[in-house]
Amino acid sequence: MTSSSEITIGSRKSKLALIQAKHVQQLLEASFPDNSFPITSMTTIGDQILSKPLFSIGEKSLFTKELEVALQNKSVDLVVHSLKDLPTTLPEGMAIAAILKRENPRDALVIKEGMSYKSVDELPKGSVIGTSSVRRIAQLKATFPDLVFQDVRGNLNTRLAKLDDPNGPYSALVLAVAGLERLEMNHRISQIFPSSVMLYAVGQGALAVECRVDDKRIIELVSVLEDKDTRLRCSAERSLLRTLEGGCSVPIGVNTEFIETQNGTRELKLFGLVARLDGSEIIKAEAQKNIDEDGIEAANELGREVAGILIEKGAKSILEELKILRQ
């Protein structure tokens, strides 16, 4: 920190990451006009290794490690992440100081420009879908076994350029709705997948602000960004993932929603699944719990409960298989 009024934000260098960091910057500037919030951007391991599918790299901190190193050595004061990229166990001395209000967490189908198809079920047999996500591939293979899936890496603009290349192999991509909306590319969304076809990634659609756990000033400052309901939903999701010992590159999907009960209280419902890579087996579980009184701990307990049901049904063997494939 160069002065007490200057607070440095760390971000990845991609266009989407910088849009997200600038969003946080603008919110903080509006709340604290006497402070300045410059952004420092950097490249992460995940940005550099583009030749391999994400799940085969085997590193849990693909898009966060370099940012956390900058945080540790105090070259930045806080870091903005897509929460889905942030491992469920943080490095010692780090904390998620704020989780912003979640945007649409679902996944979207984006069809090649010039094609007349409007949804995945209209695509001809053998159509190539571009995605690097084993979660997306496994769920789509279960419902659409005649489609072909091919890895596609790079930032969102790069992937869209690969899709629209007339000589390229892809008929469509699967991308996060929130990312497309943040880049003002809503017009490219051909279909938003319902939960009956695809559950989303843990934390998808939410932004997280990470800082040093002992930096009380920054923790208090960024508390203005916190959205309680998003924190509760994502805490349950992350607890499930942590219990299953999964990273961001595993075939685990979730869905969370608040349910109004007849006696006027709210319960959080968590639906989770673990899938074989080839889509041949999908294990599902769900539970709901009143979390308004005990808050985060109740949400964490809900995540552990649903993970426990998945483990009882055989989820561990699927995840162990994935570890062997990755070696």
From TrEMBL:
Cofactor entry: dipyrromethane
Q: Which domain of life is it from?
A: Eukaryota
Residue spans crossing the bilayer: none
GO terms (BP aspect): protoporphyrinogen IX biosynthetic process
Cross-referenced InterPro entries: HemC, Porphobilin_deaminase_cofac_BS, Porphobilin_deaminase_N, Porphobilinogen_deaminase_C, Porphobilinogen_deaminase_C_sf
Keyword Transferase assigned: yes
Domain called Porphobilinogen deaminase N-terminal: residue spans: 7-219
Q: In which pathway does it act?
A: Porphyrin-containing compound metabolism; protoporphyrin-IX biosynthesis; coproporphyrinogen-III from 5-aminolevulinate: step 2/4
**SUPFAM superfamilies named in the record:** Periplasmic binding protein-like II (SSF53850), Porphobilinogen deaminase (hydroxymethylbilane synthase), C-terminal domain (SSF54782)
Which is one GO molecular function term here? hydroxymethylbilane synthase activity
What UniProt keywords are attached to this protein's entry?
Heme biosynthesis, Porphyrin biosynthesis, Transferase
Give the E.C. number(s): 2.5.1.61
What the entry lists under NCBIfam families is as follows: hemC
Task: Name it.
Answer: Porphobilinogen deaminase
